[in-house]
Write a structure and sequence with these properties.
Layout (H helix, E strand, L loop, with lengths): L3 E2 H21 L4 H29 L13 H6 L2 H16 L4 H13 L3 H4 L6 H22 L8 H4 L14 H24 L3 E2 L3 H12 L7 H4 E4 L4 E5 L10 H14 L15 H13 L5 H5 L5
Length: about 300
């Protein structure tokens, strides 16, 4: 068993939450466009569930439902343990996501909140969870009818749907209904986030851990070892000083630009090197500023060097 970081799980959910809000903002009077946006929302929802489950199971394979798995001789002889585990989990999630959405949602709640599925089905104790699971399960049935039955009821629609009942054979994918569906997804994500934050099994990354991860994502050169450029205080969870290693002279122009951004955000007297947008990766720039803002990087210098009377 290894550490599962709550930040990673919450970040995955937050990305989808932002996409779902964006989809709501693009809903219009065009039914065809709205149906496409609805299908996109189901894709983001299910992909996020899968990503969160994968992160948890990779670190905690003992939470897999099955006790025994079959591995072929080729994989056993040619792949490392981590790849074999990854393949096992991918196969299990693939099979899970071919089946009933309700079972997927119950399983992810079991993984995150440590509520056994048998206890979860006790509606009197878990009414809020059960209601949102039922709604999301109904939405998946609407999605399947749209994709596989041209928007008409399937044979088992009436006996399967519990909340979003329809009297008409031709299902009405109105703007308002799609908005309600997406808001149900958002409600489920909100509930997941609350349970992740309450679960002590999930560790929150320290500011330094997040900065190290960002640094590794930003720089791939062996000349850019985090500890060669920053003096840290683990106890205070701070960077306390900038370092200037000799290896810095061998950096590329783009690496010097990114490094100057880091240093300027830490200590504003250090200027950011001038650059053209065509010479940098805008996605990398966005990620740098986003994470540095979230960890309040620009306060670290003052926190490490308080003014004394």
């Amino acid at each position: 068993m290894s550490i599962v970081y709550s930040n990673d799980l919450l970040s995955s959910i937050d990305r989808s939450v932002n996409k779902l809000h964006e989809i709501i903002s693009k809903l219009s009077d065009d039914n065809l466009i709205n149906q496409g946006l609805f299908l996109m929302s189901t894709t983001f929802f299910e992909a996020t569930l899968r990503d969160v489950m994968n992160k948890i199971l990779i670190s905690n394979p003992e939470k897999l439902k099955k006790d025994n798995f079959t591995i072929n001789k080729y994989d056993l002889s040619s792949l490392g343990d981590s790849i074999i585990l990854k393949n096992v989990i991918e196969n299990e999630l693939f099979n899970l996501f071919k089946g009933n959405v309700k079972e997927q949602l119950i399983y992810i709640i079991e993984l995150i909140a440590n509520i056994k599925s048998s206890n979860l089905k006790n509606k009197s104790k878990n009414e809020e969870i059960i209601n949102v699971i039922i709604k999301c399960s109904d939405i998946s049935i609407y999605r399947n009818c749209l994709v596989h039955n041209l928007g008409e009821k399937s044979k088992n629609f009436d006996e399967s749907v519990q909340y979003y009942i329809s009297e008409d054979n031709k299902l009405n994918f109105s703007t308002q209904l799609i908005k309600i569906f997406i808001e149900d997804y958002l409600s489920f994500f909100k509930m997941l986030k609350e349970k992740i934050q309450k679960n002590s099994e999930f560790k929150e990354k320290t500011r330094l851990e997040r900065l190290r991860q960002l640094w590794d994502d930003c720089f791939g050169s062996p000349l850019l070892n985090f500890d060669d450029y920053w003096l840290t205080d683990i106890k205070q969870d701070l960077i306390v000083k900038i370092k200037y290693p000799d290896s810095e002279h061998g950096l590329s122009s783009s690496e010097r630009i990114y490094l100057s951004i880091w240093r300027h955000q830490y200590y504003n007297s250090i200027k950011t090197e001038e650059f053209l947008l065509c010479s940098v990766d805008e996605n990398k720039l966005y990620k740098i500023y986003k994470v540095l803002s979230e960890v309040e990087f620009y306060y670290m210098y003052q926190q490490a060097n308080p003014i004394r009377n």
